[in-house]
Amino acid sequence: MRKEREALRAKHADGQVLIGTHVAFSESSFTELLGDVGYDLVWIDTEHSPLDGATTLAHVIAARAAGVASLVRVPHNDPVSVKRVLDMGSDGIVFPMIRSVEEAKTALSLCQYPPNGVRGVGPRRASRYGLDDRSTYISNAYDELIKIMQIEHIDNLQSLEGIIALEGVDGIVVGPSDFAASLGLAADPHDKTLQAAFDHIGEIVKGHDILFGVSMGWDRQLLQQWLGRGVNWINVGFEYQFLLQAARSTLTGVTELVDTHHHL
Fold this sequence. Notes:
- The chain is α/β, with parallel strands linked by helices and 264 residues long.
- The chain has one domain (3-262): TIM Barrel, CATH 3.20.20.60.
- Helices cover 49% and strands 16% of the residues.
- The chain contains eleven helices and eight strands.
- An eight-stranded parallel β-barrel has the order 1-2-3-4-5-6-7-8, surrounded by nine helices.
- Helix 2 (29-37) runs parallel beside helix 3 (53-66) and helix 7 (156-165) packs parallel to helix 9 (192-205).
- The longest helix has 24 residues, at 239-262.
- The protein is globular.
- 36% of the residues are buried.
């Protein structure tokens, strides 16, 4: 098992909370920087970004260079998107908008070689271009891959227990924005009905030894609530948000300094 993936699993097994962040820009140096900063994992988002195969691969390579685990969120639960990501050698994969047990089963089958699944054989970089023994890689790839189902719809209150019970599901991650949208509450992340639904998710997951995450922007109050629900993985912020915050702060500071100087 690759050391980045092994470190992530070991930290989870030790009861520590994993802290990750997201990238969506094409420039892979952001992933290298965030890994060097000290995040446990970098979520490479190909669902809501212009990232293609080449730029996604560059991020996966940059993550390994920085010694940080890489999780790629595919745009859809389909064999073409999934196969390419797995063959890149990412440490894990995130399936968006998994609303039912059947959809989760399909996602798992896309990660597993026949006869148990439908993954095509051609790992290349995932097997270090053949440096790893082919038969060993094929035998171990499914179990070693971190497979995450994203919970983003009110329907999940009925399907979540069944999804968690599936063998091979390593974790779930809640997408609060789309979940809120499914209730018509996208503009109010603090709505009491929405928060009650999230509380219920926490109750369902309680007692299960899986990764239980939330993917969101920085909000101290909301993150405190998620910690109270038992999340052991927080994936927070995007590189563009960090850039925006720093750019605004720097511009404000310099503008104030210039204005003060002019009034002396």
